Amino acid sequence: MTLLNNTWTLLLLCFLAGLGLSAGQDIHQMQYHLEKLTSVRHPFGADPNAREAARSYIKEQFQQYGLEVAVHTFSTTVWHQGQQRTVAGENVIGVSEGAGGGPLLLVGADYDTALNRHPLEDNGAGVGAMLEVARNYMAATGPDGVFTRNSTVIFVAFDLNTLEYDGSTGEPGAYHFVHQWLWPHLNQSLLKFAGAIILDSISKINMDQNSQYLPQDFGKAFPSAYKRISEDGNKGDFLALVTRGTSQSKRLKDTFTGNYLKRRKAGLIRLQELVVHTNSPVSIPTLEMINHQAHYHFWTFQPSDQLTALPALLLTDTDFYRKSSEECPLPCSAEAFLTRQRKQSLALTCSGVLYTLLDMQAERRRPGETGEVTSGASVGVTLAMTWLLAAVAAILH
What we know:
By secondary structure, the protein is of the alpha/beta class. It contains 13 helices and 10 strands. The N and C termini lie close together (11 Å). The model is unreliable at 1-24 and 371-397 (pLDDT under 50).
């Protein structure tokens, strides 16, 4: 292995250490999550047990982390073999109750798949990232952590994203969750909701020119983003942050952006904001780029005659609008899927989400309080120190 590759490996390992547990353990944990998500998870897929197995795994992980697990059941319709079929779905919810009573914050990802999609790209990596954020958040705010849980955080694995199923007209699991579980849980009060962070297709990075497709009229909806992407040769070298330009969304967007950029180093994946302003209608081609993920059901929530838009941001690689530079033909193992570039990208995304939760929903313990950090549960390792250690190790090597 070359010195450059050694350096990148060490930088990555140390970067992951800042997420909360030892770097090797984080890499192992992410791979372990993805190994449970390598199969197509569709109600009429080749393996009828794959979706149930993934659901059971998510529940087990939530329980191990110390989250209070709830299950929200619903029914919807799925188009299959020329007819609409009614199917049952389960949204899996893990609740970390806060003591301070502030507005709750949500992190979510779809855990099912369409029949013709890559199960790790869409959306196994998103589920794995959500699980890692949940694991590290609970460790950071647990007995050995340096934070206390002030406001509630909930982690949600959504089932049956029918908007990605060809020809299906049934409402997806995220829609039913917002209407049937979340809104009653909030006592129908927008003031009790800090927002949602949705992870949907986050692993495709491509540094090649013309690897990023932009829909017609994309430039009208997102002029600054269009200019940046075009001038950069239409490269798929960014993580897109899709949000609405409302005051309710601003704090969530700014907190995540600050945490992401603070931990991003040269060469790592940049962040591209796509802000949908209420006074600037988005054309249908561009809207179709951002309306099939779970966040959209928060934006369009309408419990009565009046629209009650809930703040939510989407983190995405833009899904099928981007060509992957690291194909992993099916069946694709978790080990083969987790290339160096994907590890870097997923680590940065997890870190940004984790520190957003800690900033918004937790409080750092004061000196002398119980809960001093142990080596296995620390999120206090500074990134400056880890990068320095990586550089020194590379030189010594």
